[in-house]
Task: structure prediction
Amino acid sequence: MGDAVVDLQEVGYVVAGVTVLTSITLQLEPGEVLGVAGPNGAGKTTLLSVVATLLAPTTGSGTVLGATLGTPGAKAVRPRIGLSGHDPGLYADLTLSENIRLWARLAGVPESAADDTLARVGLAGAADRRAERCSNGMQRRVDLARLLMLEPSLLLLDEAQAGLDNSSEPIIDALIDRCRATGGGAILVSHDASRLATRTDRVETLVDGALGR
Amino acid sequence: MTSDTTRSWVNPVMGAVSVLAIGAGLWTAFTSAPDSEQGNFVRILYIHVPSAWLAFLAFGVTALGSAGWLIRKKLRWDRLAEASAELGVLFTAIALFTGALWGKPVWGKYWDWGDARMASTALMFFVYLGYLALRRATPDPTQRARRSAVLGLVAVVQVPLVYFSVTLWRTLHQPFTIRPDGIQMDSSMVVALLTNLAAFTILYVALLVARYRLPGEVAGTATVPAGAAVTAPNLRSEP
Amino acid sequence: MNFWSQALVIARRDLRIEARAGEVTGVILPFAAIAVFVVPLATDTLTVRLADLGWPVYWLVSLLFGMSVALRNSATESPTQRRHLLLLGVDPVARFAGRAGAAAVLMIAVMSVTAPLMVLFYDPDGLPPIALWAGVVVLFSTGLAMLATLAGDVTVGLRARSMLAPLLVAPLAVPLVVGSARAVESVGRGTSTLGPLMLLVIADLGLAISAIVTAQPLEEATT
Result:
């Protein structure tokens, strides 16, 4: 399956003698949305980091957006990957607008587009407030605005709904719909399988670093 | 490099050879002629000079191991760098200590700022104490290898500059002591010096091989799959 | 986006954060000023000439507090922030250049305040030309910023970081200290200025090359 968005074959990841992932084989076809459920410490975040090309598999092989994991070529697809986790990663001393404009500049996106996406997530009024004075929910919405702005082909959401109010649900839906429509893909991860069912095409279960239905 | 841990004869044989070599070194050191000016104090140099030589050799090997790791990403290069850095610190300490012991009777003081080599050797000692501290502070083996390889490379670029800068500093601050230029060396003294240089180098190689093999023997138990490894204690021996 | 614009964006980010957080101007700089002030109080001024201590104290304070500037908390990126930059495709060398550049600018600011204080409190004999002092401060800060940023990167995320990074920097910064001190005193002594300046330039070049060679593996170390 050479044209799969994500194709992992027997991928394992060991750090400091501790096996985090064991023999993970999974495919994500274009337009597909996959859910991965599992308890805390099952290796969900590590799996997303491997798919995001940030961690090289210690065993096995895989491709993401056509690039082979663990090779220098994997770096080329990074700008097409959108990863969002528990921590929005804002700079506490910068305003919400300055935060998203920083990413915009580095991504080569016009700053007006950055401000627009901030408005799309309902934060236009708080744009000049420092991140440290914003609630965690607001900061998470800035992170979603970042993904809206960067328009990634592969969306990786780690506990996306956690800490977000209902008004943010349509944003997540919009992000997923865009990936689906453009032939990309998305992987959603949560400890709560019931949250994944409504948005995903199928749900895999990750326990102790291994996949099982 | 012997990465094969099944060769159990290596350590005893290398140990025996180095004991014989050091024995020969000591014999020549104590039977050679005393120096015309320094008297018996010259015998300290038969330990001091080989230690200083090994300090530089060991740090060169550490840089080699660091570069090897960055290119090949194989942990055995990291083990080589680590083993050699530990020995480098040890021999640098011996060189500094014996240098001070020799300096007191011959130059009249333990520490002489007029000698660029002393200051730069002391600085090199601190550089590699930091290197070992970084290794101890980094729990994950791959991260430890990567970070210490980077530091090992930065250090090897900077150490010649440290030496050069201390020399530059020294040339502007004239040394306080006049030391004898061109020690008249008896042939027995040359033999003693060369024997000890060889003996210490053999000792270094024996210790390097022994230390290099040590974590490999333990690492075999640390990479067993899945569940067992989660609870396996970290058996890596630390300096 | 090319290398220099990336580096510039990163440097501006760090300087803007400093403008808000005030860690250098509000904490490190006053502390450095106190250090300059305390040495005379610990000196027996009947037997020791303060004028002779001025420059040594200046370079020591510049080294110690320059390291604090480069390793300041507000410039330490969180793992998520580093991940964002990685996924945006920021060149690791550009990221290094931006952070080291911002640190150098802040170091120059600190050294520009401590220099007149040192002259005021110690009254050293014969001051160097301002241009020479400024050039030396730029070369010193650039080198120290690169060295301390490298040390900060190899110790990122480690519990022992706050003392470990300075331990790694201090002995390797000796060429910068020696080169700076010798260059500034050369005018009064009538010795060569070129030699010490060359030492500073070579040390800066060596550190720049080290940073370029090691930026890639270091980037992997920080994910």
